[in-house]
């Protein structure tokens, strides 16, 4: 089964007319995207968009052989003149299946938002799942396959969806076994909320997805170099840099993440309680939280991905335990014990089989602390970050909300 993406953008396209934002200003040439529309084997058109016939011609195809046009958006889309000879657009009701004379079958997939999702099965059995903007599947795992549940079937060969807008939908598909390690996940409905330039590819790769230019033709079921999700990532940044948001974003397309909060509750500290509340509210509902600084056993266990926020507070906790703030205790064995604990943590990161994203502060570029204990903490955090980063495939530095790749 062959898929041609006539467009890969949001309903309004990219750039938006007269929009002065940075994303629109840089969406020129190959980076420009028309509204998403898919042509399957030249016989099935998913979403009729303005200029679809010209887009097909530029991609070396014709719409002359299209036998069915289906709409996915919750509305009937913008006023588009149906090209001569093209069937009138329609949609398949939830739970129903449409069989084409060409041997293709289209089953409507129930969504948690208005609109229609489509599972397309080719004559040779390859399966494609296409979801509309803002839509995610509902009821996965509850039925016997198709519209209401995945039913233990093998993963889709390809999923084309709003990965940036609904990463939780991709998480649901993974949890149900509908997306596996070999599933080619294509991000579409890309608008000006997406990061411009290489940051888009980096962010999608963290979710195990990729974007392709308009006009790309893909063979469903053929081997593709699916982005390899990094197993260990360290996210560094200063205060209010956006490092925690970046770390959370890297795992939001995965189910059952264990969020490891190393700061505790700090009973009586209302400002800290507000910070904790903000963090909890923005996490996906499927994530669990544990408050602990005992990281080594968690890294040694099997289980879902870990998000550790943050190593800076872990270090504070350990320095408290070894009495590192007292010069005599520090010289009498506290320094040696702290270094042992840091090496133990780094060794656990090296040996872990879990996916890990850890957050830490980058404090070595600011003002030199006025106190000896402050300088000691700065130095030890620098050493901890260095050892932890050495065990990670990806290391990021977040500055002003922008993620800079230091490794990977």
Question: What is this structure, in a nutshell?
Answer:
The protein has 408 residues and is α/β, with parallel strands linked by helices. It has helices spanning 22-26, 52-58, 167-175, 198-206, 243-249, 270-282, 295-300, 311-321, 327-351, 372-390; strands at residues 2-7, 37-40, 44-46, 68-70, 97-99, 105-109, 117-121, 127-130, 158-161, 184-187, 209-210, 217-219, 232-237, 258-261, 288-291, 306-309, 356-361, 394-399, 402-407. The longest helix is centred in the C-terminal third of the chain and has 25 residues, at 327-351.
What does this structure look like?
By secondary structure, the chain is of the alpha/beta class. The chain contains ten helices and 19 strands. It has helices spanning 22-26, 52-58, 167-175, 198-206, 243-249, 270-282, 295-300, 311-321, 327-351, 372-390; strands at residues 2-7, 37-40, 44-46, 68-70, 97-99, 105-109, 117-121, 127-130, 158-161, 184-187, 209-210, 217-219, 232-237, 258-261, 288-291, 306-309, 356-361, 394-399, 402-407. Strands 5-6-7-8-9-10-11 form a seven-stranded mixed β-sheet. The protein has a seven-stranded mixed β-sheet with strand order 15-14-16-17-13-18-19, sandwiched between helices. A five-stranded mixed β-sheet has the order 4-3-2-1-12. A hairpin with a 5-residue loop joins strand 7 (117-121) and strand 8. Helix 8 packs across helix 10 and helix 9 (327-351) packs parallel to helix 10. The longest helix is centred in the C-terminal third of the chain and has 25 residues, at 327-351. Residues 142-149 have low confidence and may be disordered.
